[in-house]
Specification:
The chain is elongated. The protein has helices at 5-21, 24-36, 43-50, 54-66, 85-96, 108-111, and strands at 41-42, 70-75, 78-83. It contains 6 helices and 3 strands, in the order ααβααββαα. A hairpin with a 2-residue loop joins β2 and β3 (78-83). Helices cover 58% and strands 12% of the residues. The protein has one domain: Orthogonal Bundle (Arc Repressor Mutant, subunit A). α2 (24-36) crosses α4.
């Protein structure tokens, strides 16, 4: 059965997201941004929190932005990074779309994630 264009796009986004997160420092940076919430963090704050050099962090943040997992916004002399909760939730929805053959099997804690 041929995939629809929408299904292919969702699958491509899931692959890009998972590939970007399949590296320890990028996963740690993304999790730090998720914890920071909508206010985000500057690159310097992320580097300090993860004990990374600015050049190494820049590479990882670029990969996360390319996968549409983070947004970046100039803020004065700094760059402000925010997690893209829409992309994160889309990935979670994609991965669990047909969970347990459509039966309600998610633990209550997971079902209430509501990001």
């Amino acid at each position: 059965m041929p995939r629809t264009i929408k299904a292919a796009a969702l699958e491509d986004q899931a692959i890009a997201s998972l590939a970007a997160l399949a590296q320890r420092q990028r996963l740690r940076a993304f999790r730090a941004l998720v914890v920071a919430g909508p206010q985000g963090m500057t690159a310097g704050e992320i580097a300090a929190a993860l004990d990374l050099s600015p050049s190494a962090l820049s590479f990882h943040l670029k990969e996360l932005a390319h996968a549409q997992l983070v947004d970046v916004e100039p803020q004065g002399r700094n760059m402000l990074y925010r997690a893209r909760f829409d992309t994160m939730n889309g990935l979670l929805d994609y991965l669990t779309e047909h969970c347990c053959a459509g039966q309600a099997c998610m633990p209550p804690r997971a079902a209430k994630r509501g990001c």
